[in-house]
Amino acid sequence: MKHDEKNGKEKNKQREILVKVLRYIRKYWFFLVLSIILAALSVAITLYIPILTGDAIDLIVDKGMVDFVGITLILIRIAIVMGIAGIAQWIMNVCNNKITYHIIRDVRNEAFHKLEILPLKYIDKHSYGDVVSRVIADVDQFADGLLMGFTQFFTGVITILGTLLFMLSVDVKITLVVVCITPVSLFVASFIAKRTFSMFKAQSEARGDQTALIDEMIGNQKVVQAFGKEADVLERFDEINERLRSCSLRATFFSSITNPATRFVNSLVYAGVGIAGAFSAIMGGISVGQLSCFLSYANQYTKPFNEISGVVTELQNALACAGRIFELIEEEPQTPEPPDAVELTKVDGTVELNQVSFSYTDDQKLIEDFNLSVKPGQRVAIVGPTGCGKTTIINLLMRFYDVNSGQIKVSGYDIRNLTRKSLRLSYGMVLQETWLKAGTIRENLLLGKPNATEEEMIRAAKAAHSHSFIRRLPKGYDTVIAEDGGSLSQGQKQLLCITRVMLCLPPMLILDEATSSIDTRTEIKIQQAFARLMEGRTSFIVAHRLSTIQEADVILVMKAGKIIEKGTHEELLAKGGFYTELYNSQFAV
Amino acid sequence: MKRLLVYLKDYKKESILAPLFKMLEASFELFVPLVVADMIDTGISHKDGGYILRMGALLLLLAIIGLVCSITAQYFAAKAATGFAAKMKHALFLHIQKLGYTEMDTQGTATLITRMTSDSNQVQNGVNLVLRLFLRSPFIVLGAMVMAFTIDIQAALIFVVTIPLLSIVVFGIMIASIPLYKKVQGRLDAVLGITRENLTGVRVIRAFHQEEEETKRFEESNQTLTKVQMFVGRISALMNPLTFVIVNGAIMALIWTGAWKVDSGVLTQGQVVALVNYMSQILVELVKLASLIINITKALACAKRIEGVFEMHASLTEPEKAVDGWQKKEGNIVDFNHVTLQYKNAGAPSLTDIDFHVKRGETIGVIGGTGSGKSSLVNLIPRFYDVTEGSVCVNGTDVKNFSLNELRKRIGVVPQKAVLFAGSIRDNLLWGKEDATDAEIKKALQISQADEFVAGKEEGLDTFITQGGKNLSGGQRQRLTIARAVIRKPDILILDDSASALDFATDAKLRKAIREMENRPAVFIVSQRAASIQYADQIIVLDDGMIAGIGKHEELLKTCSVYQEIYYSQFRKSKQSETEIMHGEDVG
């Protein structure tokens, strides 16, 4: 009972997915209709040619009894329809390609578009590998299934219907023989398919495990090598590899029985037609030519059954993959901007946090009743032990996450009433986790201001002290760097990220451990540049090195999601509290 | 592909038997038209019902033999293909593991991962298909021709012309599309790259409001992929219609020749039917082949990509005869003898003429500007890179003469980027020492100042860490990576700016705990913080890849201008009270 219910649900889900797929196809209805018409045409001709050859053979009776004129006429006819069928087939294939590749292009674009508007919560929670494999591998599988479906399913079904009609027109009794035996092949195919389904599932699970291990170990090969763990990792790999091999063997073998089994049934059909036809010919029911054409029909008729049973498994796989993509596409996007969202044009620099509460998970409270009022041009430093919620504040300021309750106001507007674009562009952000995209240094620097001039860029690079090392790279500003900076040092990457912001000159700044990997000498020079930049600009600074924040107007000392101390460097030192403790530890041995 | 065939070696039996049984099946299939011809010529013309039934039974028997043969073949093919893939993946993984830092820097991991996963799967499918069908199809095609010869030599000549024509079409299309499929995979790599970038850089992209530009970039890249796919699709789409036309043309020729031959009494009507049947069989086989050829072509393109990995040679080589340099118990532990290092494809050396010597148990501070070569220097000790000139010796032996494993076993490395693996905290620490007891683990956690937060976790050592340690804060991750290095009780401990996410108090406690370790290792501390290295036995000051000064804090403060600059940049506020602080702390 329960099993049936589950089956029913799966079926429903598959149907839902199918409906969604059809929605994508709708755009290409013209090509689809054309493809179906051409399929019908080419199938009709493929079936018509055996009739013609049969007719021709009937004209070749015996020595001296050959009707050459009749044969010539028939051959001309064959040549014409054959040419038409060839062209029809090619155009049909091209149509199918067009439909398939354009649909997957559309699906990928939509998935990517979704990626850009998903809340960060989703992206932080899912492993990159999982999302990437949805956009790449799953879509690919889906495309394979779709293409196969188009090319084989249609022609298959039309062939079956067509052959049936033709056979009926030739001889009803023999046709009945065929019709009675063929369902056996479908039965055999579905019997095998049901049993192999669980094997396929086991295979893809093992494959998933293996991919996860490869991703983790090759991704962190440097650590693996540093600890000399290659042999252990290889052992783990081999264990999964062996499991995958045996799952894969079973799935491959059992699924591949389908074809011989259905082919066996076909042979039965063929033998049946042969015997029935021969007897019928003896009794004068049909001619030898008709029998020959019948036999070739019997072959053609059963073949699509094979293919369709193959396509059905492939299609199921494709639908499962499509389901995973649709899951991503239908994921709840970030809260849309209200229609009357305000474009923040004049940033006066006030930032206010009123009774803000926030947590990443429901069961763990992080920030509660957080209040802060920043005046224009103030430099706010946030310090505190790791895990106290410093980075979370930045997530909230940039509206990467929305507050659970309370509100954040910038220049007097609740940030939820502002366009995200104008809010985010009013901040310049440098994070500890440097991120550079694959491309030239120049492309990376111009990210925030694509139309900056060469002079502006170099000026910014000089201010951020990245100019001298960039100049020494093999191709200077046009040096191509790999994703994540390749062989640049961590500090150099940070310098590039700082240059990027220096170029934009945004009205407010967020620096989260922006200079943690930069040596202090360079840091001081950058600080001076920052200081000039920060003049009159509201800025938020998170840092461990207390030397970098001593000049802040307000220092917030956070602990466990709350502000426990607040004041200037001198005030806090005089207080002799947690800050003093942190400060003095700098000089400890 | 040739290179990869080695991995089929252990499945020689299977990879011979599979096609063999396929051929057997195919040859029985070839008898079918003969039997039918007999049925028509003898059975019908003599109106012999018994003969027809006997021939029918023969057809049935052929079908059963065919079934058995083909199932046997499928089994062997599946076994060989999956076994082959497993062997190949094993070898590939082993090979990638041997690639050094240099190769990883230039290749990037993403492409290695896709080659190990999706490309390998494609090749496995390809091998399976080839074993099952690629021999069967030519066999049926050629077999049909041979059978045609048994009927009539002149008629068979039509087959002789048709078959090479078909091969030209099939192989021509294959040869034309292989490089295109490689291009498709390459374009797919690019689409994957952009997707990945947008996940890892989501914050920066949104902060700079690059969503629209990125979407445009993605759509462009996606469009070029679609274009190549369409192009290669258009070429492969030729296969079916062309073969269809050729085979039907051949059938027409057969009918025409057959007509003349029957007219002159050389052939019978039944024989013409058989000839036409053989030709149709070729068509059926080719139609089947056409849809598989796409898969095989793809597999070949993927095989090339995998071979590309095998062709990548590790730049680090194990010594032919490794020395056991660890017998020595005295003398210097680390010597840098006039070392110069220049990375591959770099314009200038990263380290130049570095010369210093470290005694057992000493603490070495390495400090210097951004990009001055600090990490490069310590990376030479476990031989992550090979020096360009000079030599690095550990325990008196050139690192090139150790087996890599032996060398690295003695060294605890805490890399700049804190990497943890999916598994419990305990699992992660056991990376450092496989057989560590819980007591040893606790000790290591104490040293790395991680005991408190681990104890605070409900499940303690069994707390599960997700891949990359996403569920821990940066500082927590760093402390666990330190514990992982400390637990192996190394002779040399390298901390590569690995306390950057720790607050100063924790950093200081950590250094104190390391100093108090039993059998104190030689410690290399790479840091930006002057305070972290101030009390080292030797401080190496690097400036643009060269040693700007080496010595103790007090000496350097007097003699080394680069060091002075660094130091005062961090203590500028308290310059006047500097002596006071130092003395105060020295006593405490």
Blueprint of the fold:
The complex is a heterodimer of chains A (589) and B (588).
Chain A: H1 2-26, H2 29-59, H3 68-117, H4 120-125, H5 128-170, H6 172-181, H7 183-219, H8 221-226, H9 230-282, H10 288-329, E1 351-358, E2 367-374, E3 379-383, H11 390-397, E4 405-410, E5 413-414, H12 420-425, E6 427-430, E7 439-440, H13 441-445, H14 454-463, H15 467-472, E8 480-481, H16 490-504, E9 508-512, H17 520-534, E10 538-542, E11 554-559, E12 562-567, H18 569-575, H19 578-585
Parallel strand pairs in A: 3-10, 3-11, 6-9, 9-10
Antiparallel strand pairs in A: 1-2, 1-4, 4-5, 7-8, 11-12
Helix pairs in contact in A: 1-10, 2-3, 2-5, 2-10, 3-5, 3-10, 5-6, 5-10, 6-9, 7-9, 7-10, 9-10, 14-16
Chain B: H1 12-44, H2 49-98, H3 101-107, H4 109-134, H5 136-151, H6 153-200, H7 202-207, H8 211-236, H9 239-263, H10 269-311, E1 332-341, E2 351-359, E3 363-368, H11 374-379, E4 389-394, E5 397-398, H12 404-409, E6 411-414, E7 423-424, H13 425-430, H14 438-447, H15 451-456, E8 464-465, H16 474-486, E9 492-496, H17 504-515, E10 522-526, H18 530-533, E11 538-543, E12 546-551, H19 553-559, H20 561-570, H21 578-587
Parallel strand pairs in B: 3-10, 3-11, 6-9, 9-10
Antiparallel strand pairs in B: 1-2, 1-4, 4-5, 7-8, 11-12
Features of the shown structure:
heterodimer, A: 589 residues, alpha/beta, ABC transporter transmembrane region fold, Rossmann fold, 6-stranded mixed sheet, 4-stranded antiparallel sheet, 19 helices, 12 strands, 65% helix, elongated, B: 588 residues, 3 domains, 21 helices, 11% strand, disordered C terminus
